[in-house]
Amino acid sequence: MIQPPFDTQTVNLKKKRVLVVDDIRTDLHFVGKLVAGFDHEVILAESAASALELVDSSVDLIIADGLMPGMDGFDFVRSVRETAGISHIPVIMVTSLSGRKDRLKAVEVGINDFINKPVDKVELKVRMDSMLKMKEAQDRVREYQRELEHLVEKKTADLNATLRKLQAVLNGMNDCMVTLDRYFTITETNHAFARISGKSQSALKGLPFRDLLVGQAQAEGFANLFSRPDVTAEMDMEFSQWGRKIFSVLATPMEDRGILLMMRDITEKKQADEQRARFLSILSHELRTPLNGIKGFSEIMLLDPSSLSENYREFLGLINECGCKLEAIVDELLRFVEFYSDMDEPEELDIRLDHLVEQVLDTLSEKISTKDIRVSVTAQAHMPVVHGKNEHFFEIFKQILDNAVKFSPHHGSVEVLLETTPEAFRFICRDQSKGIPEKDLEQVFDSFYQVEDYSTRTQDGLGLGLTIAKKIIELYQGTIGISSRPDIGTTVSVTLPRPS
Q1: pLDDT per residue over 460-497, tens digit each?
Q2: How far is it, in rounded angstroms, from Cα 237 to Cα 250?
Q3: DSSP 8-state class, residue 364
Q4: Is the pTM of this model over 0.90?
């Protein structure tokens, strides 16, 4: 509750303007002298009609006779109460009337107090002070209310200006924006969504969002997005009804239990990725034929080293080593194409992920031993199973752990943590690498992106590992995040929802 900046019980009764109205001149001047003796300014009026001409907002109190010819005191007060600017002035009626009916009438027209004739000086002073205190307190309250109204008007104008700017920003966005209430009914949209849907913003408002969906795939996709309204979820989805466009849809919960949908058109990006994957597939297969010849003939020649000079044996060894590296690169390209283009739906197989992590570490044991890296795995005693394809999860952990080992220094350490909650499973990998600059964190999942500069990098690879891992994780409606601190290390966290 807002408190006024003053005490309404403590007021300063400085000199006030008091209007005295009475048709009997002797009574008029008698009351006027009493009021003047209280150190107030007195205005005298011998009739109600003349009093109405004299009264204005500067008057602080009216003392009026009840019985007057023509317009009596009751009609006079009624006129005051009906006139803007003076309706709040308190009125004391001086009267000889004492009947219940007359007093009820006085209250009805808005008379605040009474004093009987003959007027007693002390009683008049007490009643005047009471009315003037009430008037001054009410004046301060009204002033405070005016200040509050002005402040509210200013804040409202500022808020409306901000809302107009925000609406202009939203309408200028290329991304589509839709807000839904708790019943999934559209409450707001921007111009981009109106354009893509072919409906006006006013027509979209109040429309159930499901009325815009076509087909079982879209219905199921949004059912998954909305299944947990308290959690942010993201999904790529094709909309055949909007020109077969593909959108990345991000559903974010709002405080009023509604949902904010942000939809970005990624059709061109998806098409470019698919074309790139097809190109890499052709390229990889075409590279294998000459690669097999290079490796095969070099290995045959090395079978009889006595027929070769020491220099030739060294050259053939280098040729064979380069062939092995090239073969690893081709295998990585083919694996990327396989996981990007031909990924199947998850199979419902039970997989103990702690066992799977151990299998991955076995395949990396040579690298771990060569760099003398200490690897620790911490898992809960009763690690539940997840459902999916064994090779999918194997690939996720292999890519993450291989990076951790690859970029960790000699004699470093890698920590693996497996956690479970009622809703999700978490795989966390921490290493002691040099770290990733903050500017590169958002791009580490992009295809072929490498943090190390090409001219100075020390590690082999095409920068496809985390891209493959992210694609598989998204297949299982999971998320992957990465954080890093220079010269301290990098942490990769994978969260996968537990199967229902």
Answers
A1: 555 567 777 888 888 888 888 888 888 788 888 888 88
A2: 11
A3: T
A4: no
